[in-house]
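Q: Is it fine to ask for two folds in a single conversation?
A: Yes, each is treated on its own. Send the first.
Q: Here.
A: Result:
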Amino acid sequence: MNLFNKLFTRKLDKPIKAASVEDADRVSAVRLLEIKSKKLSNHLFSGEYHTAFKGAGMVYKDTKQYSQGDDIRFIDWNVSARMGSTYSKVFEEERELSVFLLIDASASTIYGTGVRSKKERIADIASLLSFSAAKNNDKTGMIICTDKVEKYIPPKKGRNHVLFMMQVLLKSRVKSLKTDISKALIYLNNNSRHRSIVFILSDFADEGYAQALRIAAKKHDVIGIRIYDKTEEVMSNIGLIKLDDTEGGTTKWMDTSENYCRINWKKQQEKIAGEAEMNFKKAGADLLHISTSDDYVKILQNFFVQRVNKKGRI
């Protein structure tokens, strides 16, 4: 991985380690996530999540008298024979869905210069999506990944399951610092039998995941959420600094007063965003870009509304 894509050592003096906090503090953090996410889900999403995603199929609901224009394939001949008139079956959308969260826990997500790091913002969004799914009686599951699958939580329903997932996410101790999104996608493809809603939360500072993404998008409804820090986009002129490649384990000095260094830095960040955009477009999947300082709730809200409008479902 290119060193331009890594973190300043001054940002790594006190890395964010959720696993190092006391159990009581971790439980408190999970509770705070729950309170915030449930409030946002109840008062801000107001059904946007529900209408943005189709159910797994159609299930029988009732029988009604046949009307002109009804599909003749759904005529209930048994009921029609008993009643002496034509009746047709009524179906409704089966709402139960499985929602998977693919969480990038590699070292590059530690970075953050504002109130929230990329890792913390990922947890915020994961919590909001999970509680929104639970509110709609959908199952939620999680895959925490680096360059390997660190943790797999099968999808289940309910608040307690969401709380369990959030606790696992906050306390997770990863065995690797590197990134390989394709490994998580391949694992998902091999272990999910049914079509699911899949959110990939990552900074996408990775390469070589395009093919696995295309395969996943053919089977599932895939939405990528690229989390980034705005200071990553432009390198400031702050003199000579030491860059730590936290994933590769190497170090390099960089003179930020040199214009070409700042230009190369910007090009590298544009390349990451551009490749992610291209990969998702070719896969026929959606991609959102959310910075650590953005109003992520508003961005998700707008996405759900636009998704409904695009599919002509309102």
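Q: Second one now.
A: Result:
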Amino acid sequence: MSELLSADSLLSVFKHCEQATQIIIGYSGGVDSHVLLHVCANHPVFKDKLTAVYVHHGLQAEADAWAVHCENITANLGVRFKVLRVNASSKSGESPEEAARNARYTALKALVNADDVLLVAQHREDQLETVLLQLFRGSGLKGLSGMPEAMVFGKGRLLRPFLSVSKQAIDSYAVDNALTWITDPSNFSNDYDRNFLRNEVLPLLKQRWPACDKTVSRSAKHCAEAQTLISEQTQALFTGVFNKVDKTLLITQLISLDIVKQNIVIREWFKCLGYKMPSVAFVKRLRAEVVMARPDSDPILTGAGYTVRRYRDKLYCLIQNAPKALGHVVWPTDETSIKISEQHILEIVPAESGISWEQWRQSVVTVRSRKGGEKLSLPNRTGRHTLKDLFQEAGIPSWERGVMPLIYLDDQLVAVGDKWISADFYRVKPDFVCVQLVFNGDIFL
């Protein structure tokens, strides 16, 4: 047995597992993940914590048989086993490889609780492939840093114990221990970029530079260290431009920076929002067509599933499937929440001030979209105010106003989202048991 692949020799990585409640292994049945499973299953401290998870993508006719194979292997090793079925069909702008990877990690993330660890079997040649692919795509330092050995994942952590281990050492371990594994026929299809790189390009590179997996892995670590320092500086820049309340960028602060720093802040913004990183061309257009547009204009720039707009001194990033106008929805008075779109829920919570709970329960509650001309009287303010004036006063963008939920009790406007409550319905404890409305999430995100 190769000493490189004993759990003791990988203790610097496995130390994160010592206090783990559960150790989940992403087990495809292939040689790499089988070796990882075998190493862990033969470690007395880890074995009782192990759960092997096979992600069934449904992309191969043999997938059901592979799941059975994996179950048999884990049973022989005395390890718990679970199958996760996912929808790996690709979305617009997403490659089949990316779709399968995203579906796999999304499903696994749901399993990882606090104090849990997910182990995956990516090795040094996988790191080489990743760095080269990122290089060919024109990535910066972050992409050239490759895959980290350890990272936050779900509520727990993800570890790659084999990231400094050669593919040859893994294969040797498998042969030495007479392991049986699955070979996915799609691995030989050069239609996929990674397979083309692995099957056609890397053999040539390794003829000339046999240790390139080790040296490129070292370069990736250098890039990761540099990226760490840059990230610290980026965060300081970003904090001065980012508005946490509505997740916007402040245009005045943004244009006070030089172009390089503007680009860095914009990319950090997309990262913060959880969106796909924009291309260099898109960032350039964003600065020219939106950031530098006239303050009274309403420029719109559409990208991969999102739209960037400006309102007053702020940049907004909107998802393209933003919620539509509600129409007329009855809110059952025995329900404390109501779903008004795929992304958003209105709910009521106990409060020191707000709408009388007794009055709420005795009324017909409806949720509607704005039609125009609605007016509202506000606590501690005289007169009645049009919603148009209130929206302008509060700096609420035009696209958000049309989908802001209006709440009515017996056909009387009582609240506008979680922004305002009518003075006619506003009460304060201890005379009343009150409720407040909570609108989860920002409409434009």
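Q: Anything structural to flag on that second result?
A: Two points. Confidence is low (pLDDT under 50) at residues 441-445. The radius of gyration is 27 Å.
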